[in-house]
# Entry
Amino acid sequence: MKRLISYFSMFSVKMFLGFWIIAICAIFATRWVSVKFTEMEEVRPIPRGAMHHLKKVNDRLIQTGERHGDKIWRLIDNRDKRVPKEIWLKSVDSHRIASNARKQKAEIKEYILNSQFDHPVVRVFGNSQLLGPIDLEFNDQPYQLFVSRPLHGKDFVGRIHAIPFWLRIVTTLLVTGLLSWLLARLFMRPMNVLKQASEKFGEGELNTRIPQFDQRIDEFGQLGQAFNTMAERIQESVSSQQRLLGDISHELRSPLTRLQLALSLANRVDDRSDEMQRYLQRCETEVARLDDMISQALQLSRLENQLVHMSSEPVNIGNLCGKLVNDYELVLAEKQLQLHSDIAQNLIIEGDAAMLSSAIENLLSNAIRYSPEQAQIQLSCQVNDGFIHIVITDQGQGVEVSQLQQIFKPFYRTSEARDRISGGTGLGLAIASRAIAAHGGDIYAQLASKNKTNPGLQVTIKLPYDATLNS
# Structure
């Protein structure tokens, strides 16, 4: 039901149904008006040409009646060639009716029986018309003669009336539906182009433009040109921001190096007090953090500006995860953490080993950093649905559900107090996200449990799996 509601909520479907309903209402309104104005004209005076034809048939029938007398009824019923075609003969006294018409419609017979005529007229019945009556006598008996003849091709309305009512309704619905669908599709084509361009731009392809809209002078053209202008300005702004981040990080390297050298020289002084030694150690710690932050900022800037050369070589993801687990054994033991790993072997993909290792290491180090002592961390690396799933789960404080997508943005912090304690820079997940995206993969986070105190965080990396590389 939800799928049906969402389908009918689409703008294209609404436009199609709107066109269709308007077209059907317009057709039926026009039909109603035309019927109101033409129903009184169904019986109209007989034209001169039709009157001449009626008299000609009348003269021929009189000659036949004079020769055959009462047998004229049988001749008409048997469609004898001696009798004019397509005639209706009515006895004024007995109201008997005979006809040799090919299509003897009941409505015509009823019309002849129940109508009173002062002079010859024309009455339309579907795709034929009835002329008459004209009075004549056989053997002193009064009769009335009617002649039916088909309508010519120019009488389109009459032919339409000849079509069965249900077929007219079905044809109307099909024709208006097809035309409305084509019209809605025509209007939605530029909207779909704009939608696809917006989706690409939202996915990070900032060079997306719609050049074909520059030649349009309608509202869609104005919308497309506005999109191009917006995209150009956003790309310039983001590029400037990325260049600024890279330039500042690069420029900070020189004074930072000199500061590290000064601290190294200060540590060589022999007559240092204990208080001075504590200050120097604190300075070294902060300088190391600053150096790490600048390194990560430079790495992120190069990834976003695509300045990092990504090598393409076979990488065994299972071995990569196993090596990281071994590297962090001492850190895990120091915090009394237990790491449970479930790593499949021989998971080979084409990629950059250093970038992939850095991305996974960032996630693992975050899990260790934010886990309380004696907690458990799980690392899983398996193949599922054509993707390699690398899942790292911790038992830390987790993050708010509303912030699960924000944590992959550069310098985003969920808790300033926690970051000051843990020493985080807010760049690790952003670097991991860019590195995984460069390999055609995806990364996302969710709460590991429903525990309100320490729900934990589960971060999943999805990388495309090529079975041919692992055969």
User: Anything to note?
Assistant: The chain has four domains: 1-41+163-198, 43-155, 204-308, 313-470.
